């Protein structure tokens, strides 16, 4: 009886994660940090011929440690050709001459847009999973992300808050960003989107001062103290704003995919911190 | 003096040849000498599809920039003129940037360079409209300033309208100027235009020499100044526009090379043209080898390295001119 159950279990498992097809790509090259982070979740490292050098950045890359062990390229056609890849994943904004060179040489590449919503990000994960023949692993990752989003959702009855992201250089996440999508779910109304800012653009400090949000998600300053970009975040005028300030990692802004798990949790923590502060003020 | 002159061209050509070989040898991937003997398809692909076009484009574009610089410095009788003076290069860059901005550069490898050439042609038409049929060098230069201003403003507008920081980064990276990963397609688009432009410039040698006597002097020698002006402006426009369309803006080559060669071949504009072309080719090839052997991960853009070499030279040039005046 027990043995039968075991057989059934094995059968179910083998259906759930079928072995890779014979023609599944085995020498995958990714040229983009965000695609790297998704790829390493979907395929064993043996099938990755190279990832982007940006993934080794200890501060901005979520997979910096793993990236130390993986081969990298600096996005030159020469390096890519020499790796004899059977699949190249590239961003739509990668260097055009390099892409043209790959096309001439007959190397198959797939272009990926920057996702502008959670939906697009999940679709991107599924597309990569299909390309690398790891559909099951793709579904597992998607489920993990969806679970994290559900866990961070605004509890019923809790008040919505206003919020804005303010990164170094005055950059904010406006409408049509994954961050904006997540803020909505978590119960934060994005001030930047209300002002008509789309994607990642700078937000005028004036707008922020005119309607200070309940929560200001301030970008961390990464060894850039004193630069113009950092100075914007440390502007005197910002000190006058009584918004609750909360650190918001810059890497959340630029890549979605697996980082959504961490990002949405950080947003929920920031929201809860505002609730805690207002409760403390009310009881005083 | 004559002995040095006789040696200049052969040694420049030898330099270009040596640097072209270096350009083919140097790269991130180390290729063995026996690439041909082994059935090494990857090595052969890298050699023929990546290194060879790059070396050839280095020669063609370097020569174009050197030639255009020498021609303009001769025509304007001003050592500070460079291929960008007429504004055609900025217009070419603007045209190419627009094709990236609207996403049509992805359609086909020819779209981006052809848009650059289109920008250059619009620029030359505007130049003709602005400077009219007058034979005044001053009007021509001022028209160039206007064109550059429009193109630069247009590029800045496109950058600020770009939908995301990544899209803007893509444009900026292209603008900085490089030969990395260019292909034989790029060579096929640019070299015919550069050849026609160079022919236009080289056939106006007589007018250039006559102009050293001033516009009045040239006219009294029977030179048709209007014709010479448009032949030169057209030639420079074609040569520079086609280069920029392929490589982005590589500054200072056209400015520096004629100055380096003037002491060797003399200041006569017509004798300076061909050596400047060879010198430009050598300089661009050398720069392109340097960006590939510099330590560090990503390649530094060629345009950046050229400006790093060119700007201090410009400074020294101004400094020595100031001493001459006082």
What does this entry look like structurally?
The complex is a heterodimer of chains A (284) and B (326). Helix content of chain A is 49%, strand content 15%. Chain A has 284 residues and is α/β, with parallel strands linked by helices. Chain A folds into two domains: 23-147, Nitrogenase molybdenum iron protein domain (Rossmann fold, 3-Layer(aba) Sandwich); 155-283, Rossmann fold (3-Layer(aba) Sandwich), CATH 3.40.50.1980. In chain A, strands 3-2-1-4-5 form a five-stranded parallel beta sheet, sandwiched between helices. A four-stranded parallel beta sheet of chain A has the order 8-6-10-11. In chain A, helix 3 links the parallel strand 2 (48-52) and strand 3 (72-73). In chain A, helix 6 runs antiparallel to helix 7 (135-152). The longest helix of chain A has 25 residues, at 259-283. Chain B is mainly alpha-helical and 326 residues long. Chain B has 13 helices and no strands. In chain B, helix 3 (88-101) packs parallel to helix 5, helix 3 (88-101) runs antiparallel to helix 6 and helix 11 (253-265) crosses helix 12. The interface between A and B is medium-sized, with 30 and 34 residues.
């Amino acid at each position: 009886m027990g043995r039968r159950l075991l057989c059934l279990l094995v059968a179910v498992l083998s259906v759930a994660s079928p072995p890779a097809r014979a023609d599944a790509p085995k020498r995958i090259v990714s040229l983009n940090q965000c695609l790297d982070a998704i790829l390493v979740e979907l395929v064993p490292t043996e099938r990755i011929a190279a990832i982007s050098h940006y993934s080794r950045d200890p501060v901005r890359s979520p997979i910096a440690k793993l990236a130390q062990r993986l081969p990298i390229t600096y996005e030159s056609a020469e390096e890519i050709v020499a790796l004899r890849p059977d699949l190249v994943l590239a961003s739509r904004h990668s260097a055009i001459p390099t892409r043209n060179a790959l096309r001439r040489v007959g190397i198959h590449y797939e272009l990926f847009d920057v996702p502008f919503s959670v939906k697009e990000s999940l679709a991107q994960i599924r597309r990569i999973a299909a390309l690398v023949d790891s559909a099951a692993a793709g579904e597992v990752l998607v489920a993990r992300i969806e679970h994290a989003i559900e866990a961070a959702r605004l509890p019923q009855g809790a008040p919505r808050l206003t919020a804005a992201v303010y990164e170094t250089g005055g950059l904010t996440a406006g409408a049509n960003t994954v961050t904006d999508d997540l803020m909505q779910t978590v119960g934060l109304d994005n001030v930047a989107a209300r002002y008509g800012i789309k994607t990642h653009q700078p937000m005028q400090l004036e707008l922020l001062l005119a309607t200070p949000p309940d929560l200001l998600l301030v970008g961390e300053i990464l060894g850039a103290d004193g630069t113009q970009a950092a100075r914007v975040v440390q502007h005197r005028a910002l000190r006058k704003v009584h918004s609750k300030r909360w650190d918001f990692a810059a890497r959340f802004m630029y890549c979605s995919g697996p980082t959504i798990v961490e990002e949405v949790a950080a947003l929920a923590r920031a929201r809860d911190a505002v609730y805690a502060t207002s409760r403390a003020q009310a009881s005083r | 003096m004559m002995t040095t002159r006789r040696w200049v061209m052969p040694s420049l050509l030898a330099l270009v040849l040596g640097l072209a070989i270096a350009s083919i040898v140097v790269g991130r991937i180390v290729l063995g000498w026996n690439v041909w003997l082994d059935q090494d398809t990857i090595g052969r692909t890298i050699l023929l599809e990546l290194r060879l076009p790059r070396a050839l484009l280095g020669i063609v574009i370097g020569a174009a920039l050197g030639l255009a610089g020498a021609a303009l410095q001769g025509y304007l009788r001003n050592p500070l003129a460079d291929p960008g003076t007429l504004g055609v290069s900025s217009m070419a860059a603007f045209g190419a940037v627009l094709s990236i901005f609207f996403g049509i550069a992805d359609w086909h490898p020819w779209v981006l360079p052809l848009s650059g050439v289109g920008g250059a042609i619009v620029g030359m038409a505007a130049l003709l409209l602005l400077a009219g049929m007058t034979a005044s060098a001053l009007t021509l230069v001022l028209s160039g300033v206007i064109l550059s201003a429009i193109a630069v403003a247009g590029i800045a507008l496109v950058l600020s309208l770009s939908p995301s920081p990544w899209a803007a980064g893509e444009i900026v990276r292209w603008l900085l100027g490089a030969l990395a990963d260019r292909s034989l397609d790029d060579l096929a688009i640019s070299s015919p235009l550069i050849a026609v432009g160079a022919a236009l410039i080289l056939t106006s040698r007589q007018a250039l020499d006559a102009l050293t006597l001033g516009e009045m002097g040239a006219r009294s020698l029977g030179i048709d100044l209007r014709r010479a002006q448009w032949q030169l402006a057209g030639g420079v426009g074609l040569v520079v526009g086609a280069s920029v369309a392929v490589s982005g803006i590589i500054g200072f080559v056209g400015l520096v090379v004629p100055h380096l060669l003037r002491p060797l071949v003399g200041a006569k504009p017509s004798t300076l043209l061909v050596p400047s072309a060879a010198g430009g080719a050598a300089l661009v090839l050398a720069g392109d080898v340097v960006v590939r052997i510099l330590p560090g991960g990503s390649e530094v853009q060629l345009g950046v390295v050229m400006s790093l070499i060119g700007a201090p030279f410009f400074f020294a040039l101004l400094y020595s001119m100031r001493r001459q005046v006082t």
